[in-house]
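Appendix B. One record, verbatim.
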Amino acid sequence: MPRGRPRKNPDTAPAPKKTTKVSKAKAATATLGFEQQMFLAADKLRKNLEPSDYKHVALGLIFLRYISTAFEARHAELMQDDPAAAEDPDEYLAENIFWVPETARWSHLRDNARSSGIGKMIDEAMLAIEKANPEQLKGVLPKDYGRPALDSVMLGELIDLISDIGMGDTDDKARDVLGRVYEYFLGGFAGAEGKRGGEFYTPSSVVRTLVSMLEPYKGRVYDPCCGSGGMFVQSERFVETHGGKLGDIAIYGQESNHTTWRLARMNLAVRGIGADIRWNNEGSFLRDELKDLRFDYILANPPFNVSDWWNASLEEDPRWQYGKPPAGNANYAWLQHILWHLAPDGTAGVVLANGSMSSNQNSEGEIRRRMVEADVVDCMVALPGQLFYSTQIPACLWFLTRTKKQKGWRDRRGEILFIDARKLGTMVDRTRRELTDEDVARIADTYHAWRGEKGAGKYEDSPGFCKFATLDEVEQHGFVLTPGRYVGAEEAEEDSVPFTERFAALEKTLKEQFAQGEALNAKITASLKLIVQKESA
């Protein structure tokens, strides 16, 4: 997958901007809230089109605008230096930029946005781009803009709206903003689709928590059910934020839903991230595309409590090192699949339903016991409710490891850290909660301190929030891994008022309330007497 950004040319002027009645958004407004304004404006255009359908319409156009911005910036540079080279695809591949044929360039579509045939033009542009970049984009881009259900006026207005993104800024800034908008739109559509939306999208605050705890600086990163690729985007962002660069991590993934796989490929491309993302409709259990590879970091949000995953061919699968998972629930199949793919020093973070921490149905309790005794469970985090678009089922995070004696950290063998984060988070609307940056930092810092990382500070148990337990203690709890069983109750704040004073105040309040009650009873009795007298008259 091409990645990297073209060199900036200060003499290259941005393309002329068209006026749009849909939005007044400018690059100068590309601050907090800009993405939301863009999404609301775009959402108004869909009218009666279902979010699940409109999602591909909008995201496909944002992707097209992104790769065109990179291409046209490089094209302008070459036109100044060597016009003959400007139409040579190799000149763009050398800079890890997608080659965009002339009729597929955003400037061409923008100039024809009000044409009645704009839908057909977009389809032709998508086909031309796939043909020009078959290795990276074959079968990825949406190509149904010309269908009658899509109003050409709506498409033209959407093109005008997307043309506003990043205009007036440098090309690098424009692409950064486009990437932010793409990511925000993914979340917005997940919310609009409700339960179905959660199938391709993991809430950003949950992904940030996983990434902040695992700290994937360098090495191989894997997601066996990668959805739209949010885990990878956050991992690359983490690397760049901490002084690394694109390419410090090698990304691998698998996805069984072809539509979602296409979203992931576009999501990574719009961020300039190279990745080996495999698709097959059989899924990671029946057809493990990367079965011989082991990974330094695994991040996953498998579908909760999947009941139709089993196949007789899995009966003697070598991945079931801790016991054959029950056919009616895939939770422990996912955990063992992930452990199978961990490198000797690898660590994994997995989102699962809360029931996975305590269930004893079929063989689950026995598998969990064996995992604990094998010392592969490193940390358990109970999450607050209402974090997910797709389900109200409470969720938790499992952190797994092949060794608790990693180089540079303290020896944690025989211990498990429990974090109860159920009281954290802030409601962002009537139905959904998010973990704040402070919440994510508190959870991650606690884990890092417990692991004994350099500069992470000293770890201390915090009643009601975190506690580490020995494997003997976990055995005493029947190998149940629910953090609430271990962290205890939060310490109450010490009251500086002496007990005698507090008791006197309580006694006074109680007497006043008794007096008020007696007065109210007297009024009710008097009212009842009046009613009886009137009825008797």
